[in-house]
Amino acid sequence: MATYKVTVATGDMAEAGTNNSISITLVGSYGESRQTTVSFLFLPGKEKSLSVHCGQDLGPIVLIRLHKWRLFLEDAWFCKDVRVTAPNGTLYRFPCYQWLEGITTVEVREGSGKKLVDDKLQILKEHRRRELTARQEAYRWKNFAQGWPRCLNVDSIFELDSNIQFSRIRASNFTGFLIFQGASHFLSGFLLRRSSWNSLDEMRTIFSRTQGRDIGGCL
């Protein structure tokens, strides 16, 4: 009997947690574990620890599979990373940093960087092939118009996977920044101005106020 200590971390951003069921499978060079339930409730910024019992030593852990199941309502989950400690004390890290949506299984490689020629196991070669195929399907290009640069072949960003879309946090910050800038320009007399500028000095005065606030905020 071999026992592996597993720690699963949830991202700390808003709505990263989930009440859907999450389970895990450890894949080693000698075999793989049974699918083991981690939890039915994950909170943002928190970790869940569990023990995975196997009938034999799995060897070096090369992959993990995260399985997400919804019981009633869909609740997306953002996995930060997974850490696995083998019976001999070896620590394996699996950086995930992605959203899991719907009923899905996601495979995550061990965190040490490897080139294609380093993949000696067939399971790693297959994982790399599937990952490449998924990327090719996600990033399809089209010509918007003759002579224009190519763009993604989607009609809306909402057709993209959540992991490709602009992050919710950045989108919220960007929207807030636009509102702030719009209000600043309005109060400065830049927006809704119906008359021409009287001089370049007047323009410099208005824009210098905005630039001063931006520079001060960066400092």
Shape: elongated
The succession of helices and strands, N to C, reads EEEEEEEEHEEHH
How far apart are the termini?
Answer: 57 Å
Write out the strand line-up for the largest beta sheet, numbering strands in chain order.
Answer: 4-1-6-7
Structural class: alpha+beta
CATH class of the domain at 2-112: Mainly Beta
Tally the helices: what do you get? 3
Rg: 25 Å
Mean pLDDT: 81
Helix percentage range: 25-40%
Q: Determine the CATH topology of the domain at 2-112.
A: Lipoxygenase-1
- According to CATH, the homologous superfamily of the domain at 2-112 is PLAT/LH2 domain
Strand content: 25-35%
The name of the CATH architecture of the domain at 2-112 is Sandwich
Mind summarizing the main beta sheet?
Answer: 4 strands, antiparallel
Low-confidence region ranges: 210-219
Count of β-strands: 10
Task: Provide an overview of this structure.
- This protein is of the alpha+beta class and about 220 residues long.
- It has a domain at about 1-110: PLAT/LH2 domain (Lipoxygenase-1, Sandwich).
- It has helices spanning about 120-140, 170-190, 200-219; strands at about 1-10, 20-30, 35-40, 45-55, 60-70, 75-85, 90-100, 105-110, 140-145, 150.
- It has a four-stranded antiparallel β-sheet, with no helix packed on it. Strands 3-2-5-8 form a four-stranded antiparallel β-sheet, with no helix packed on it.
- A hairpin with a 5-residue loop joins strand 6 (about 75-85) and strand 7.
- The chain is elongated and about 85 Å long.
- The termini are far apart.
- The model is unreliable at about 210-219 (pLDDT under 50).
